[in-house]
Amino acid sequence: MIPITRAVLLDARQDVASARAKVVRSGLAQVAVRRTEGIVVFWYAFDTQDVLARFKGHDDKASVRQALNLHEPNANPVQDAGAADAAPVNTNTVIVDGPRFIGVRLAGALPEPDSLDHADAQAAPPPPMAASVSGPGSLGRMVRKLRSLWTGRAPASTGEPWGDTLAGTPAASQIATVFTAYPRLDTPATVSPRQQFKLTVGLASRPDAGTAGGPFSIGLAASVARFSLDVLVVADGFDMPAGGRHRLDVDRADPYAKTIDVVLVAPDSGNEVLLTTISVIYFFDNLPCGTAARRIAVVPAGTQAFSATHGNGQLWTRAGAPGGAVTVRPGIAAVDLTVTISKPDGNPATGRYVWTFQSPHAVALPALPVTRDLGMEAHELGTKIIEGIQNSEAQGMVEFEIGGLGKNIADRMPLEFWPLLRAVA
Length: 425
Description:
The structure is a single chain. This protein is of the alpha+beta class. It has helices at 16-26, 48-56, 64-68, 118-121, 131-134, 138-151, 378-394, 398-412, 417-424, and strands at residues 8-11, 30-37, 40-47, 78-80, 93-97, 100-105, 176-186, 190-191, 196-204, 216-221, 226-234, 245-251, 260-265, 274-284, 287-298, 314-315, 326-328, 338-342, 352-358, 370-373. Helix 6 packs antiparallel against helix 7 (378-394).
């Protein structure tokens, strides 16, 4: 198992004052920095003391990029956690899991038999909880739930054979059969500010080149020849004249024939290149059944975006991870309100997230996704939550801490959430 060292993550654009405060607050011995140049993402790894020493020689308003003299040739290698080799690396290497930052592999570090596995290392959790916290009881359950949310782990598909019967009858026409497809998204890799363009959404029989998204399977009665999927488009900052909610009709005899075209207008990014992601959530009977995403860059008109990776850079517009499989079994009722939180900018150093909502009830859902900034990256917020519970339990003030925790989380949620929650309650 690969050894991963926890590190505090900075964005190259943030100022020295906020970066220094974040580094000191973390108490970690390693610092990682994410920097973008044109349509390329570069990563860097440093010792904390080296970073703090360099910060001393610069004004608080200077950027991290200036203070650390970040350039393409001195970028560090990057490895994906799922594909990382256990052999020692020759130089400090940044470990990511898709858009998520995990930590740093130090040069020469040997695999540790007792080290965390990939799934646990992704969240780089704090030291283990005290037995009374991680054990039985409401607080223990809360902590375990927070940990599961923090790591982002989803239950694996059971892979069990289909044998469900619909409507309580064994008639052959009512035996559940499996419909399986891959998501399909077509859109330009780059657009200009305020450019109008088309996003084509559909289904495919195999993975779609350039689209991140795994297959999804839906249990349907054999007698069902046609059905519909609700499609929700998530495009942070893009105008969608016809809204983000659409319907895709599917004919099982030729499920890949029909598509829908969604018109989008790119945001005005000024003279800067904007790296973002357009994603789609598929719903069957108000149940989320699949997701797909395509990375896109908004490039100022008349300019050629920097695209040289210099060996260690990551080209933003390349296809992302394929994604896991999703299965929807027959007879499952939709929940009252489905909230999906996504991160189109793919930048784990910031707290900008996009919220979307779906409900089987006749409630007024936002026509477009809602953007909300947490004020800090999700990992840092998760650390504060867990450490707050630990400290309050040691001081016998758990009840007060949980009350404050609830208010803290509520304040960071979009205002649109609360009327929806009341409406479906």
